[in-house]
Write a structure and sequence with these properties.
The chain has helices at 22-33, 46-58, 73-87, 110-138, 150-153, 159-179, 209-213, 223-234; strands at 13-16, 37-42, 63-67, 92-95, 141-146, 184-191, 245-248. The protein is an alpha/beta fold. It has a single domain, classed as NAD(P)-binding Rossmann-like Domain (Rossmann fold, 3-Layer(aba) Sandwich), CATH 3.40.50.720. The chain has a 7-stranded parallel β-sheet, sandwiched between helices. Helix 1 runs parallel beside helix 2, helix 1 (22-33) packs across helix 8 (223-234) and helix 3 packs parallel to helix 4. The radius of gyration is 17 Å and the shape is globular.
């Protein structure tokens, strides 16, 4: 008899970066709703993290707010160590936090380049280095990176971000190969246009009606759409999905 499909995360411990609002917050809450205890990471806004923790508690789980600069490997190592001390494990990591400056290529300074790559791509390496040994000990783990359409289509005025978004898929494939034998999968969710609270000056075409008509489902996505994809990849039933990308873009691009 086939095993039943299960999205039950009871007993699992998850870390979600950039979880104070928008996609990260939705992911943290949905993982908690499925039974996971969640470390809620952010960089500056402790009140936003506390709000996410309150939502996690409202669905009957436990959240731990943790301020840390994910671009700092020492801070990341301390955060993972705190998760292990608090919960005794770390089973699921969702690397969601990112900066997305809108800059022409020739306007990108060396500092801009370094800051974007450290926050969006190197942070995934730092977190994996700290978390994977804990997952390997338990012979079970889920690494999930949040990418974006521009990592596959390219985009004007965001060269540094495009490189990062493509890079997290390459990293997932490398991790999936190396750690698959330990019961650990590594995958990517690439959101399309998602309705979030953001600096709309950095996204001048997002709410353009002509752009919406190019999406076959005729709507912009929601944070729940992305959280659902992450819940699936984090679940016990996604153990045969490894090194892959879920493109959650309403069919705007079909890869």
């Amino acid at each position: 008899m086939a095993e039943p499909v299960s999205f039950d995360l009871s007993g699992k411990v998850a870390l979600v970066t950039g979880a104070g609002r928008n996609i990260g917050q939705a992911i943290a809450i949905e993982l908690a709703r499925a039974g996971a205890r969640v470390i809620v990471n952010g960089h500056r806004d402790v009140a936003a993290l506390q709000e996410t923790v309150s939502e996690i508690e409202a669905v009957g789980s436990v959240g731990l707010p943790y301020l840390a600069d994910i671009g700092d490997p020492k801070a990341v190592a301390e955060m993972v160590a705190s998760a292990q001390q608090k919960f005794g494990a770390l089973d699921i990591v969702v690397c969601n936090a990112a900066v997305r400056p809108h800059q022409a290529f020739l306007d990108i300074s060396l500092d801009d380049w370094d800051r974007t790559l450290r926050t969006n791509l190197s942070s995934c390496f730092f977190i994996a280095r700290a978390a994977l040994p804990l997952m390997a000990e338990r012979k079970w783990g889920r690494m999930i990176h949040i990418s974006g359409m521009d990592g596959y289509t390219g985009q004007t005025n965001r060269a540094h971000n495009v490189v990062c978004k493509a890079g997290v898929h390459a990293l997932a494939k490398a991790l999936g190969h190396e750690f698959g034998p330990h019961g650990i999968t590594a995958n990517v969710v690439a959101p399309g246009w998602i309705d979030t609270v953001r600096d709309w000056s950095q996204y001048p075409t997002l709410r353009n009606e002509k752009e919406v008509r190019r999406i076959p489902v005729r709507r912009i996505g929601t944070v729940t759409d992305i959280a659902a994809a992450c819940l699936y990849l984090a679940s016990p039933s996604a153990g045969f999905i490894n090194g892959q990308v879920i493109h959650a873009n309403g069919g705007r691009y079909m890869f």
